[in-house]
């Protein structure tokens, strides 16, 4: 367009002289340059040096030219996108020499603009989200504009910096480089309890030239109770308690912590326990029953499983073992022997050697322990009559040890010991116990053979884990039979026992899949039951149910019936994809699905697969009309551009109802009778109508959808055709026409009845809507109209033309009849039109004798047409003007009374109210003679006593 204007300008001024020289032409001016830039200079040797040598042909408010020097400068900053080219017409002083200066505005790359959200550009834009916000859900949309986009420039969005606090280093957020949508991308998990409370993102929009704008987004993370309580474990997950622990005593205190803030914890046993009590709030474990090992019903160890539950109903469990230790009680003897003076025994003097004098009854309450030393206190008395002599001494009998006893296991589990994998190295499995009845002979323990997985303490007999045990490691056995030897100090005697250890699998491996994220691009018409992906996920755990993998599809409400997950296969259905939905448009036309892959172990471990499905639009639906055919009505007298009606079609393809209308058939004529607005479907009148020429039009309207497919139009455009019938409604704009408009004929005076047939018609009224009447020339009502049915009437005579009883007229007579024909159009009198037909009837006497008297024949003037115009107006009843007049008089009197009350004391208005002030010298008048007063004069005339002056007093009637 600019090139066309430039060529046209050059043609217009091609005949003008070219003495004005432009030093730089054309001028290339970069956009956004400051005003005042010198662009070029005009020079004409004929006017050089004159004070007013140069000026623009027309006003150019954006440029100025120095009148004397011809220097041309700019006065504004130009924008290429809105004003790419300017033409300046320069003339000299005479106005006969002209030149054209072309100023081309050069496009300069401009940085994007991020001020659409002033909070973002100022660095104060703040969002708040929960730490459980789903991945890829839109959190914020950066809106940047660039004037260069119209020239093919594109914007790319990126995160310049991402700072987390108070803990640093998290990379949780990402931004879509195309649309600027900020969302969680999962590089690092969003965890408030890990210290990620606030994120500060510096977001940047960069164009293809590298120019950018940026802003700051602050994202605050809301804490969600999503953490399980964690127990502080006991050493080796076990406790040692003596068997003589009193009932009610505290055994231990459990402590669990919850990373969620302000969360309280409740403790409970997983199974009912009768021997131990647990305070639900403090975690204190107390003893409820005796642990005496002498009681065969009591065990040496108890396994307890405790559950901790927080406010969010998250639970954590902890299992530990309580080992009961034996207590070495002292030896007890008979009370008669061990208390007081001891036992006193009398024996005769001749008691034989080796005779049993007294048996000391002692016992060790500890099972399997024997008394190893006896100490006797012996008193010898000489019983005499005169004196009692005695001596007392102590005899100690020591039993000397002989290494003749083999060590004996006092505790070695006969049942297999089940241990879990991944227990820490050094974890205690069991403490073997053995004894050697020989005095001061210690026992020692060792494995028979080499065992890299376990170790045994030589002195204490504790068996511990010596090597990490992984159930999934094929090189690790799943069970062991450990041969344990216990021997004495000199390795003289030994005993061998077996210990069976079984390794149990724990759920320590979450399922793993071949891919963590899938991205598909699917057309919306993809068939239902189409397989999208078959997931391949495995669990490294080796036992059931830890390696049983289940799949659960997490989808939003909109995607609820669009996708189905059966086992590991994701399919379309039961409903098909639908691109054409306003809710889906708000989702950027993509489904984001999450499939949670879980095992069935305890605790349940899972991994999440993200599936992004971008749906592409398919033009699959034809435009559909609101009715099969459209029927419109319009009056024939409507002006050009009048509204005829509207054709309404809908298109369910996105963008919804984006259609274009065009008349493709039936609209004949030059110019055509109708035109249709392409984007509204409104049909308007383009040329005048005449129902009498054409009462109905049938036109074909083609409806074409626009931009409803991923492929550009018109590859998959769809069309529909609507038949539109336009009825032209009659308007009474055609008056009746009689053919011929006037008639003349002769009849004899003896004719009685119809003698002439009127031929009248109306182009827009049928015959039954026409009425006929004789409105002139019907002297003595001699003629009448005789009508049968709806056809035009006959003109007939009522009687013959006889003026006496036996004789008719003597002379010829002429009648000029004026017959009015009026249409009615269904009784609409406002639009009635009429026409007249003139009928001249020459009545001839019926006689063979010429008339005796001669009568001069009068020339007849024929009235050919009468124009009748109806004027409709409102005519009130006779009493209404009288009432209105009376009301006007009363209103005037009221106004006068109000004015009199307001100004009666004001001398200024005395001439308006003369009766309000007394006269100092009132003149006297003598009524001497009355004077004739016109009937329309409301006054009295007096003549003064001098007879020279007359005064008229006039009273206005209000």
Automatic annotation (TrEMBL):
<dbReference type="GO" id="GO:0045296">
    <property type="term" value="F:cadherin binding"/>
</dbReference>
<dbReference type="InterPro" id="IPR002126">
    <property type="entry name" value="Cadherin-like_dom"/>
</dbReference>
<feature type="domain" description="Cadherin">
    <location>
        <begin position="626"/>
        <end position="738"/>
    </location>
</feature>
<dbReference type="InterPro" id="IPR015919">
    <property type="entry name" value="Cadherin-like_sf"/>
</dbReference>
<dbReference type="InterPro" id="IPR020894">
    <property type="entry name" value="Cadherin_CS"/>
</dbReference>
<dbReference type="GO" id="GO:0007156">
    <property type="term" value="P:homophilic cell adhesion via plasma membrane adhesion molecules"/>
</dbReference>
<keyword id="KW-0472">Membrane</keyword>
<dbReference type="GO" id="GO:0016477">
    <property type="term" value="P:cell migration"/>
</dbReference>
<protein>
    <submittedName>
        <fullName>Cadherin related family member 17</fullName>
    </submittedName>
</protein>
<keyword id="KW-1133">Transmembrane helix</keyword>
<feature type="domain" description="Cadherin">
    <location>
        <begin position="411"/>
        <end position="513"/>
    </location>
</feature>
<keyword id="KW-0732">Signal</keyword>
<feature type="domain" description="Cadherin">
    <location>
        <begin position="21"/>
        <end position="120"/>
    </location>
</feature>
<feature type="signal peptide">
    <location>
        <begin position="1"/>
        <end position="18"/>
    </location>
</feature>
<keyword id="KW-0106">Calcium</keyword>
<dbReference type="GO" id="GO:0016342">
    <property type="term" value="C:catenin complex"/>
</dbReference>
<feature type="domain" description="Cadherin">
    <location>
        <begin position="514"/>
        <end position="630"/>
    </location>
</feature>
<dbReference type="Pfam" id="PF00028">
    <property type="entry name" value="Cadherin"/>
</dbReference>
<feature type="transmembrane region" description="Helical">
    <location>
        <begin position="879"/>
        <end position="903"/>
    </location>
</feature>
<feature type="domain" description="Cadherin">
    <location>
        <begin position="233"/>
        <end position="409"/>
    </location>
</feature>
<dbReference type="GO" id="GO:0005509">
    <property type="term" value="F:calcium ion binding"/>
</dbReference>
<keyword id="KW-0812">Transmembrane</keyword>
<feature type="domain" description="Cadherin">
    <location>
        <begin position="121"/>
        <end position="231"/>
    </location>
</feature>
<dbReference type="GO" id="GO:0008013">
    <property type="term" value="F:beta-catenin binding"/>
</dbReference>
<keyword id="KW-0677">Repeat</keyword>
<dbReference type="InterPro" id="IPR039808">
    <property type="entry name" value="Cadherin"/>
</dbReference>
């Amino acid at each position: 367009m600019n090139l066309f204007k430039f060529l046209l300008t050059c043609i217009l001024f091609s005949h003008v002289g070219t003495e004005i020289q432009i030093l730089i032409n054309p001028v290339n001016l970069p956009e956004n340059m400051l005003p005042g830039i010198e662009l070029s200079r005009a020079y004409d040797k004929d006017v050089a040096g004159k004070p007013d040598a140069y000026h623009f042909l027309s006003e150019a408010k954006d440029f100025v030219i120095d009148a004397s020097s011809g220097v041309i400068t700019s006065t504004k900053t130009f924008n290429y996108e809105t004003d790419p080219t300017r033409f300046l017409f320069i003339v000299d002083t005479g106005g006969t020499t002209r030149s054209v200066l072309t100023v081309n505005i050069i496009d300069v790359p401009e940085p994007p603009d991020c001020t659409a959200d002033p909070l973002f550009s100022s660095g104060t834009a703040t969002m708040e989200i929960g730490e459980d916000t789903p991945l890829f859900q839109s959190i914020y949309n950066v809106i940047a504009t660039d004037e260069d986009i119209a020239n093919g420039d594109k914007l790319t969005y990126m995160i310049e910096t991402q700072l987390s606090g108070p803990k640093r280093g998290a990379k949780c957020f990402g931004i879509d480089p195309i649309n600027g949508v900020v969302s969680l991308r999962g590089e690092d998990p969003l965890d408030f309890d890990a210290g990620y409370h606030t994120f500060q993102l510096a977001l940047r929009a960069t164009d293809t030239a590298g120019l950018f704008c940026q802003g700051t987004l602050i994202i605050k993370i809301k804490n969600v109770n999503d953490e399980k309580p964690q127990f502080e474990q006991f050493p080796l997950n076990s406790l040692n308690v003596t068997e003589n622990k009193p009932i009610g005593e505290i055994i231990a205190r459990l402590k669990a912590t919850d990373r969620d803030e302000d969360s309280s914890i409740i403790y409970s046993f997983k199974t009912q326990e009768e021997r131990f009590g647990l305070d639900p709030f403090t975690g204190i474990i107390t003893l409820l029953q005796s642990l005496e090992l002498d009681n065969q019903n009591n065990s040496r160890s108890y396994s307890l499983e405790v559950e901790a539950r927080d406010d969010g109903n998250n639970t954590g469990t902890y299992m530990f073992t309580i080992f009961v230790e034996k207590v070495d009680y002292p030896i007890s003897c008979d009370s008669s022997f061990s208390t007081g003076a001891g036992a006193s025994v009398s024996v005769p003097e001749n008691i034989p050697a080796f005779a049993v004098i007294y048996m000391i009854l002692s016992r060790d309450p500890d099972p399997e322990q024997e008394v190893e030393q006896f100490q006797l206190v012996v008193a010898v008395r000489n019983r005499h009559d005169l004196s009692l002599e005695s001596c007392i001494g102590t005899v100690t009998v020591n039993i000397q040890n002989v290494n003749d006893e083999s060590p004996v296991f006092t505790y070695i589990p006969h049942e297999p010991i089940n241990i879990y994998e991944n227990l820490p190295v050094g974890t205690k499995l069991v403490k073997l116990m053995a004894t050697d009845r020989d005095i001061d002979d210690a026992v020692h323990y060792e494995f028979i053979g080499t065992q890299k997985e376990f170790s045994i303490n030589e002195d204490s007999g504790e068996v511990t884990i010596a090597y990490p045990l992984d159930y999934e490691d094929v090189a690790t056995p799943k069970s062991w039979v450990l041969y344990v030897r216990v021997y004495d100090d000199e390795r003289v005697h030994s005993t061998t026992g077996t210990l069976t250890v079984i390794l149990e699998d724990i759920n320590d491996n979450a399922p793993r899949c071949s891919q963590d994220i899938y991205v598909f691009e699917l057309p919306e018409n993809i068939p239902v039951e189409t397989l999208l992906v078959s997931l391949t996920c495995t669990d490294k755990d080796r036992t059931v149910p830890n390696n049983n993998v289940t799949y659960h599809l997490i989808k939003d409400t909109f995607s609820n019936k669009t996708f189905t997950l059966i086992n590991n296969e994701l399919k379309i259905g039961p409903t098909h994809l639908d691109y054409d939905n306003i809710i889906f448009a708000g989702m950027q036309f993509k489904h984001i699905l999450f499939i949670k892959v879980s095992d069935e172990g305890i605790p349940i471990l899972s991994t999440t697969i993200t599936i992004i499905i971008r749906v592409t639009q398919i033009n699959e639906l034809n435009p559909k009309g609101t009715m099969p055919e459209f029927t419109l009505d319009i009056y024939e007298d409507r002006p050009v551009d009048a509204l005829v009606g509207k054709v309404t079609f809908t298109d369910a393809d996105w963008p919804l109802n984006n259609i274009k209308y065009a008349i493709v058939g039936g609209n004949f004529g030059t110019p055509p009778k109708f035109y249709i607005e392409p984007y509204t479907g409104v049909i308007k009148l383009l040329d005048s109508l005449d129902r009498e020429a054409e009462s109905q039009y049938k036109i074909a309207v083609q409806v074409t959808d626009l931009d409803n497919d991923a492929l550009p139009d018109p590859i998959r455009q769809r069309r529909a055709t609507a038949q539109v019938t336009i009825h032209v409604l009659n308007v009474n704009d055609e008056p009746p026409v009689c053919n011929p408009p006037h008639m003349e004929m002769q009849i004899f005076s003896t004719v009685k009845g119809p003698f002439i047939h009127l031929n009248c018609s109306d182009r827009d009224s049928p015959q039954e809507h026409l009425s006929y009447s004789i409105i002139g020339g019907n002297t003595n009502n001699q003629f009448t109209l005789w009508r049968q049915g709806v056809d035009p009437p006959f003109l007939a005579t009522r009687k013959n033309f006889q003026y006496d009883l036996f004789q008719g007229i003597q002379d010829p007579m002429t009648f000029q009849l004026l017959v009015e024909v009026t249409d009615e159009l269904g009784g609409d009198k406002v639009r009635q039109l009429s026409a007249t037909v003139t009928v001249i009837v020459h009545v001839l006497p019926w006689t063979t004798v010429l008339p005796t008297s001669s009568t001069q024949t009068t020339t007849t003037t024929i009235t050919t047409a009468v124009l009748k115009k109806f004027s409709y107006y409102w005519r009130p009843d006779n009493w209404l003007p009288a009432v209105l007049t009376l009301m006007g008089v009363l209103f005037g009197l009221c106004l006068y009374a109000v004015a009199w009350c307001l100004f009666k004391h004001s001398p200024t208005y005395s001439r308006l109210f003369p009766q309000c002030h007394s006269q100092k010298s009132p003149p006297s008048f003598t009524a001497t003679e009355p004077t004739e007063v016109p009937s329309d004069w409301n006054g009295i005339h007096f003549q003064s006593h001098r007879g020279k002056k007359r005064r008229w007093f006039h009273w206005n009637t209000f």
